[in-house]
Amino acid sequence: MSKNTKVVGHDAVRIDMEEKITGAALYTDDLPFGPNLLHMSVLASPHAHAEILKIDTSEAEKLPGVMAVATGKDYPQKYGLYLQDKSILPVDRVRYVGEQVAVVIARTKEIADEGCKLIKVDYKVLEPILDVRDAMKEDAVLIHPDLGDYQVIPWINPQPGTNISHVRKIRKGDVEKGFEEADFILEDEYHVPHVVHACIETHISVARYDYTKRFTMWNSTQSPHTQRHIMANALGIPHKDIRIIAPYVGGGFGGKAGISMEALTVACQKVPGYPVKLRWSRKEEFLNSSQRQELRATVKMGVKKNGKITALRHIMHWDVGASAEYGNNVVNATGFSATGPYFVPNVSIDSVGVYTNHPPCAAYRGFGYSEFHFGIESHMDRIAKAIGIDPVEFRRINAIKTDDEVAYKCHMNPSGMLECIDKVAEAIEWGKEEVSDDPDIVIAKGFASAWKAPAMPPNAGSSVFIKFSEDGSINVLVSGMEIGQGLHTAVAKFASEILTVPLDKIRVELPDTDRNPYEWQTVASHETWELGNATIRAARDARDKIFDVVSRAFHLEKESLYLEDGKVKDDLDPDFSLPFEDFVITGIQTEFNTWVGGPIMGIGSFIPEFTNAMVDPDTGMGGHPNVHYTVGAGAVKIELNKKTGVVRVVKMAEGFDCGKAINPDLVKDQIVGGFIQGLGTALYEVCIFDDKGKMLNTNFTDYKIPTILEMPDEMIPVIVEVPQPDGPFGARGMSEHTMIPVMPAVANAIANAIGLRIKDIPLTAEKVALRPLQKDFVPEK
Amino acid sequence: MVREIEFTLNGYHQKITVKPSEKLLDVLRDRLGITSAKYGCGKGECGACTVNLDGKTVRSCLMYAVEADGSVIETLEGFQRLGKKEIQEIYQKHNAFQCGFCAPGFIMSTDELLSQNPDPDEEEIKEALAGNLCRCTGYKNIFSAVKEMVEKRKGRES
Asked: Which parts form a coiled-coil structure per UniProt (chain B) (predicted)?
C-alpha cells in the first residue's frame, strides 16, 4: 500500500521532535501560574490497614500561610471508572501505606508540608492482608465491607461479602474431556509481582476553582475526558463547567490513565480563584501511581503427542491492591485472552481480582498480558521439551490463525502469527548454538509469542476536528494524548495523506476538553486504529466540503475533482488547479462577485459498533468483547554468568503484526523501548514490602530501572503487515505488546542455559546463582 | 537569612537573592523561567535536572543555589544562542526521544561528553549517559545519535 501512499508507510521525523529537543515542549510542571499559585501537600497513612477514629486539623489550620485543609469529611465521595471503590479522601478507614488521609493547601510547599505534620490522626490499627491467598480465606477481614453498595458497570462482577473485586470466567468446550484426550499434561504455578511504571515525570495536577464555579485542571494525563467525566460525577458539577487541559506528558504507560491523584486537587474549591498545585515526589509516585497488579497463576495444559493443545485450565488470582476500580478491567481483559496466541479447543479460565492492603493497582503497559504470558509461555517451553518438539515449532503448531475461534468463540482477525514466529526465530538465529570463550559464561536463547487486544468498553469513542487556516495549513484537534508513542505523527500522516497537505503544514493539538473533541482515553494501544479512523473520516469530511464549494463556484462535476499537493484539480480539465490557500477560509468569488463557501472544517468520529461486553457471567460466551488482536513474538540471546548469576541480554529480536506500519521507524522504536521496559521487569524490577505492608524501595537507588548499560548490543525489530480490514490504511495498535514476550523469553533462555526453571519473577542474579547450588535442584532438560 | 548570588545563565548575567536551603533546580525553574531542567526524582538518580555548571554537568536537584555563586550555567534553553544546536539536530534526525521529558538531561550529558572527550568509544558513550534514565526509548536511538555525532565531528576534523 505504501507504494500508493505519499506519507503513510514512509519514515518521517516525529512532528513533536523539534519541540522536545529544544526544550520548547512544555509539560504541566513547566506552565506558569503566577504569584497566586498555592501548593498542596498530602498527609499519608503510615498504616496499611486501620480505622480512622479521629482527625484533628486545628493546629494545621492555624499555621501562617496555610490556606485550607481537607479530609474525608469534606470529600467522602467514592469514584472509579469500572467500580467506584476509591476514596477521594477516606472517611473511616485507610487501606494501604501512603493512602492520602488529608491535604493541606498553603502559600508554599514547605508550609504545606509543615501543615501536614501538625495534623493529628487517631488510628485503630488492623492486621493488614498482604497476600491474595489470605484475602480469599473464608474468615478473611473484608477490606471493602460495603462492596455491595458500590456503583459498578454492568459487566464487572464484584462479590459482596468477600474480598473479590471481579471475576471473569471462560468456559469453552469441555476442559475435562480435553485433558482426557491429552497424551501429556503439565500443571504448575507462576508468580509475577507488583511493579511500577516509573515514568520520569511524576504525576502532577494544577487545579483552579473560580467564582463562577468553573473548575479548570492542568493534568499530566492520558485521559482528559475520562477525568472530566469522573470528576463531574463525583462532584456533581456539569461536564461543561469542568475543563481539563493536558500539556505534554513525561511518560504514561497506563500510569496516567483514568484518574488518581488528580482527584485530590478538587480541594481547590476551598480557595476559589487560586490555582493549586500537587506534584508527587518520587516516593509518593512509587506509592500512589497505581502499581501493576501482582499475579499468582495456575496453568494446567494438556497436549497430544503431535503437539496439539487439547485443553487449558488457567486460574489467575490478581492482587488488585486496596482499590480495584480501573484494575478490574485488567482482570476482565485477561480473562478473555489467557489462552495466549494459540488455538485451544477446550478452555477454562478464571480471572479473579482480589483486594489486599497493597497500594491500588491499575493499568500498566500490556494490561495484564505480560503477567499471564509469563506462565503460558514458560509452560509452552516446558511442554515442548517434555514431548520432544522444538519450542518454536510447538508454537507454530498451535499458533492462532485468521478465522480460528478464540476462547470466547469469536473469530480471529487477519493475523500474521506464523510470519512473526518465523521472522523472529530467523533473526535470533534459533537453533544455532554458541559457546563463550569464558568458561563461566553460558550463551543461550529463549523464545516467546504474544498477543493482545485493546481492552476498552464497547462504546469507547474517538473524534477529530480538522480546521484550515488562510495559508492552507491545518490544525488537527484531537484529545488523544501524545505520550511519547508517536500518535500525533500518525494522526498528521492520516490527515496529510487524504488532504495532500504536507506534514510541515500540519499541527496536531494537545487536548483541552473545552476545545478539542471527545476522546475516551489514550490507552489500550487503540488510538492509531480508532483515532486514526476518526481522523480519516474528518479528513474526508473536509475534502467533501472542498469539492462541494469548488464544484458550486466553478460549475464542475464533484466526481471529477481530486486533491494533489494542497490543490484542487479536475480530471476533466488538466489546467484547473486551485490552491487551498485561495479559498479554504474566504471561500470563492463567483461571477456575480458574491462569495460561496467559507472556512473549511472537517469532523469525524468513530466507535467500534460491533463490540458487545455483555457476556454470560458463568461462561464468558455470547459477546464480542475485543475489537481485534495484535500478535507477535520475541526472542533473546543471553550471556549467563554461572558464578555471579548475572544475566545479560546481548541480542533481541521482536516482531509484531501491526497491520500497517504508519511510521515504520516509530514502530521499531516502540519495539525497542517496550523491550527494554520489559527487560527491567524480567530481571530486577519488583516492589518490596515489609510485613506491615510498607513499600521499602521507593526510589531509583533501591528500585532499579534499566539504564543505557543494559541495552543489548544488537536489537532487531521486525514489522509484519497483514492488514486489519477496518484499520486506517490497515493499521492496528502495537505499543504495549512489545513488553509482553520479554519476561518468558528471558526465563526460557535461562532454562535453556543451565536448566534452571524460575517461576517467580524477577529473574534475579541471586536466584540464577544460588538455586543450582541447592541439593534438591533438578535441571530442566 | 538570605544571600545574594551572581552567575551567568545561558550567556546572561543574573543576580538573585536566595535562601541557603534553596536547590538550584527550584531556583532555575521557579524563579528564572528555566523549564528544560526537570524534576524527576529529587535525589540525583534520574538525570532529568542535569545542567552544565562551569563546563561540567551537575544534578541541579542535589545542588544548593548558593553553591552556584560566581559560576557559568548552561541549560538547553541556551543551546541555540550558544551555538550548540548541532547536537539537537542530530537527536532530532534520529527520533531519539519519545515522551521527551528526559531529553534536556541527555542532551546536556552528551554536550559534556563531547566537549571533554571528542572521540569516545561505545563504552565511553554509554558510561557518560548511564546517569540519565529514560523509560521510553530503550536508549537505542539516543546511542545512535551520539555515535553519529562523534563520527561526524571526527570526519570534519580529519
From this structure: none
3-state SS string over A333-402?
HHHHHCCCCECCCEEEEEEEEEECCCCCEECCCCCCHHHHHHHHHHHHHHHHHHHCCCHHHHHHHHECCC
8 Å CB contact between A549 and A468 = no
Shortest alpha-carbon distance between residue B4 and chain A (Å): 21
> Cell numbers 503566577 label which residue?
A34
Cβ neighbours, 10 Å, residue A320: 33
Q: A268: helix, coil or strand?
A: helix
CATH classification at residue B93: 1.10.150.120
- Least Cα distance to A37 among A271, A267, A284, A280 occurs for A271
Three-state DSSP class for A455? coil
Q: Where are the beta strands (DSSP E) in chain B?
A: 3-9, 12-18, 50-53, 56-59, 72-74
Q: Whole-angstrom Cα distance, residue B40 to residue A643?
A: 36
Is the same domain home to B28 and B45? yes
Q: What is the pLDDT of residues A636-669, one digit of tens each?
A: 999 999 999 999 999 999 999 999 999 999 999 9
Shared domain check, A444 and A489: no
Residue A147 lies in a domain: no
Strand pairing of A601-606 and A291-292? unpaired
State whether B99 and A484 contact (CB < 8 Å): yes
Residue spans of chain A under pLDDT 50: 1-2
Domain enclosing residue A538, as ranges? 16-24+459-606
Using the beta-carbon criterion (under 8 Å), do A250 and B99 form an inter-chain contact? yes
Of B27, B43, B77, the position where a domain reaches its end is B77
Spatial CA neighbour of A501 closest among A451, A566, A582: A566
Q: Residues A297, A224: one domain? A: no
The total of structural domains in chain B comes to: 2
Contacts with A477 (C-beta within 8 Å, 6 or more apart), sequence order: A464, A465, A466, A467, A509, A515, A516, A517
Cell of A516: 478539542
Please return the burial class of A683, using the count of CB atoms within 10 Å of its CB with bins 0-12, 13-18 and 19+. Answer: buried
Question: What is the spatial distance between Cα B72 and Cα B9, in angstroms, rounded to a whole number?
Answer: 6
Tell me the whole-structure pTM to 2 decimals. 0.98
CB pairs under 8 A between A and B: 157
Domain boundary among B77, B95, B122: B77
The predicted-structure confidence for B67-120, as pLDDT tens digits, reads as follows 999 999 999 999 999 999 999 999 999 999 999 999 999 999 999 999 999 999
User: CB within 8 A of A723, min separation 6: which ones?
Assistant: A1, A414, A659, A660, A730
| C-alpha to C-alpha distance for A124 and A26, rounded to whole angstroms | 45
The string of pLDDT tens digits covering residues A28-64 is 999 999 999 999 999 999 999 999 999 999 999 999 9
B70 shares a domain with B88:
no
Same domain (yes/no): A658, A688? yes
Residues B41 and B101 placed together within one structural domain of the fold: no
pLDDT value at residue B156 = 78
Q: Are residues B83 and B72 in the same domain?
A: no
Q: Which structural domain range is residue B127 located in?
A: 79-155
**Which A residues 657-716 touch B at CB under 8 Å?**
665-666, 669, 672-677, 699-701, 705-709, 711, 715
The vertex-B86 CA angle with B82 and B90, nearest 5°, equals 145
Query: Residue A465: which H helix or E strand, with range?
Result: strand A462-468
The values of phi and psi at residue A431, to 5°, are: 95, -20
Q: Is the ipTM of this complex over 0.95?
A: yes
Asked whether residue B86 falls in the same domain as residue B109, the answer is: yes
pLDDT tens per residue, range B45-66: 999 999 999 999 999 999 999 9
Residue-level pLDDT at B158: 61
> Count of domains in chain A?
3
Domain boundary (A606, A625, A654) is at A606
Q: Residue A673 and residue B136: Cβ atoms within 8 Å?
A: yes
**Residue A234: predicted pLDDT:** 87
